[in-house]
Every structure is written in C-alpha cells, then in structure tokens.
Amino acid sequence: MGMLNWLGEKTLRLLGWKLVGSIPDDVKKCVIAVAPHTSIDDFILGRIAYCSVGRPVKFLIKKEFFKNPLLRPILIKLGGIPVDRSRSNNVVNQVANLFNNCDELNIIITPEGTRKLVHNWKRGFYYIALKANVPIVLGFLDYKKKELGFGPLIYPTGVFEEDWKIMEKFYRGINAKH
C-alpha cells in the first residue's frame, strides 16, 4: 500500500466513512456511474476513496470549472476531463475513443449530470460503456449509512430499459446528502 492509499484510507476513517465493495482487479477499463450526486462533498469524498483504493481515475466535469486559472491545473492533475454541456459535442464518441486508446481507464460519470435532484438520468454513461465495450460499475455514496463504494458490474446489453431495472434496484434506498 502506497502513501496515497494509506492517507486516503485514514482520511475516510477519520471522517467516519466506510469504503464498501471493490472493482475486480481484472477489470482494467470501466465507466463508474456514481449516484446519488447532490453535493460537492460527493466529489471530495469520492476522490479520497479513489486515493485509498489506488486506482487511476478520470472524471467528466463541466468545462466552466476549467476557466479558473488556479483550479484548472488541479482538475487536470486529479483526472478532470472538461465537457461542454451547452451544445451537442458527441461526448459519447469522444470518451469511448479514450477507452480505445488506453490500456487502463476508469472514468467516473454522475448520471444525473448535475448536483440538483433529478428524476431522470442522462444516458451518456451507458452509451459510452456500450460503445467502448466496457462494464459499468455502480458507484455510490450513502450519507445515512456513511458508506461509499462500489456495487455490481453491469455489462450493457444495448437494451437500456432492461439494464436500467438492475441499476434502479441497486440504487433504491441509497441516501443522498440533499
């Protein structure tokens, strides 16, 4: 265990959080759908969790955050990938192509696409995984239990409605911060 792993593990414990589940070692590429996402605290806790498990990770984040000259280098170092949400930029193809060009890649996507309460998720995470032929790991943060981590892997079938039933069942009962 490296220093960063140790520090992440100790920080989670100090904050009273428990890391649950894991991504199997043989899964080198995946989309990690993290929900519910209602607070910037989700990002902070999630980043600490990734330090503790020692997996390289990237995440999609709206491009506006990259305009801040102090924040930009930090976001890049942490694995941020800017996304222009103001127009259709074929993000699905762009991110799927990233998978094709890497031997190991884990990309976090928050299916809500915002920190506000939403009842319908954006499906981009699903279609990225389908196009890149990688599994989706169901990531979560449960503020009531103070647990975060990884649930089951889903290999997208191309029939979203059927795969959605599995995802919806997993996330039912997980408590957001807001």
Write up what this structure looks like:
Strands 1-7-6-2-5-3-4 form a 7-stranded mixed beta sheet, sandwiched between helices. It is 37% helix and 22% strand. Strand 6 (136-142) and strand 7 (147-154) form a beta hairpin. The termini are far apart. Helix 1 crosses helix 2 and helix 4 runs parallel beside helix 5 (124-132). It has 178 residues and is an alpha/beta fold. It is globular.
Number of strands: 7
Distance between the termini: 34 Å
Proportion in helices: 25-40%
List the total number of helices: 6
Taken in chain order, the helices and strands follow as HEEHEHEHEHEEH
* Structural class based on helices, strands and sheet pairing: alpha/beta
Strand order of the largest sheet: 1-7-6-2-5-3-4
Largest sheet: 7 strands, mixed
β-sheet strand percentage = 15-25%
**Overall outline:** globular
| Residue windows where pLDDT falls under 50 for at least 5 positions | none
Rg of Cα set = 16 Å
Mean pLDDT: 88
Secondary structure layout:
Layout lengths: L2 H12 L3 E3 L8 E7 L4 H14 L4 E5 L8 H8 L1 E4 L7 H10 L4 E5 L14 H9 L3 E7 L4 E8 L5 H12 L7
Parallel strand pairs: 1-7, 2-5, 2-6, 3-4, 3-5
Antiparallel strand pairs: 6-7
Helix pairs in contact: 1-2, 4-5
